[in-house]
Specification:
Structural class: alpha/beta
Mean pLDDT: 96
Oligomer: single chain
Strand order of the largest sheet: 5-6-4-3-7-8-9
Strand content: 35-45%
Number of helices: 6
Order of helices and strands: HEEHHEHEEEEHEHE
Radius of gyration: 16 Å
Largest sheet: 7 strands, mixed
Shape: globular
Helix content: 25-40%
Low-confidence stretches: none
Distance between the termini: 27 Å
Length: about 170
């Protein structure tokens, strides 16, 4: 019986020497791998009380949307700045080399709604920290952060320590 980890392709020295790139495209390009990944993520939500799933652009859409569909929950897009047509809230956060800004529609999360944030990978945690702050600014409560892959060596859980963080597969390195 294959595990999700069996479907994840590792590419050495990408994007630079010494990095072991964990590629999720090999998971989603295989029907069995995709089904297994979504099923494993859904299992981690069993018994959790929540109202909304929000996914970070773009691979958070890939994993969050089928989870929302399967569980009959609304899906909220967390997008790069300038991509949403209605009134938004935004958050700028630090990257390794610079900054990035993400946005959500102001009406996407209602006060007191319980939100699960989904993305493909947790590295340093910056994107999800910013997404959580947007949810909270709108009056929502982040009840879980769910990832397919965790790069534990980058300590993203430390930044997100006030949240319930879960990942299907964890790698010790970067």
């Amino acid at each position: 019986m294959k595990t999700v980890k069996d479907y994840i392709r590792t590419i050495p020295d990408f994007p630079e020497k010494g990095i072991m790139f964990r590629d999720v495209t090999s998971v989603i390009q295989d029907a069995d791998g995709l089904k297994l990944a979504i099923d494993e993520m859904i299992k981690r939500l069993d018994g959790l009380d929540f109202d909304v799933i929000a996914g970070a652009e773009s691979r958070g859409f890939v994993f969050g949307m089928p989870i929302a569909y399967a569980l009959h929950k609304p899906f909220v897009m967390v997008r790069k700045a300038g991509k949403l047509p209605c009134e938004t809230v935004s958050k700028t956060y630090d990257l390794e080399y610079g900054t990035a800004t993400i946005e959500m529609h102001k009406d996407s999360v209602k006060p007191s709604q319980k939100v699960v944030l989904v993305d493909d990978l947790i590295a340093t945690g910056g994107t999800m920290q910013a997404a959580a702050e947007l949810v909270e600014e709108l009056g929502g409560e982040v009840v879980k952060m769910l990832f397919l892959i965790e790069l534990a060596g980058l300590n993203g859980r430390k930044l997100l320590s006030k949240y319930d963080v879960d990942a299907v597969v964890s790698y010790d390195g970067k």
